[in-house]
Design brief:
This protein is α+β, with helices and mostly antiparallel strands and 71 residues long. The chain has a 3-stranded antiparallel beta sheet, with no helix packed on it. Helices cover 28% and strands 24% of the residues.
């Protein structure tokens, strides 16, 4: 579905990490400015970002996401 959540993470777990959140319908356009390395995550796990980072830090979410996906 075009409304499926998606997130693209550039330089995950590094100080220069960038995160772009959208849907399958718009993630390519929203993340087009990001330079490699980057990974795109698709599905409801994208919505867990707020639950895993109450302080707003993307690093905690990224590490928790890696554990969820068993990367």
């Amino acid at each position: 579905s075009p409304d499926t959540p998606a997130a693209t993470i550039r330089a995950g777990t590094l100080p220069e990490q960038e995160l772009v959140v959208g849907t399958l319908a718009n993630i390519a356009e929203k993340a087009s400015h990001l330079q490699p390395p980057a990974i795109t995550v698709v599905g409801e796990v994208v919505g867990m970002q707020a639950q895993l980072t109450p302080s707003g830090g993307h690093l905690v979410w990224q590490n928790s996401l890696a554990q969820l996906l068993r990367i």
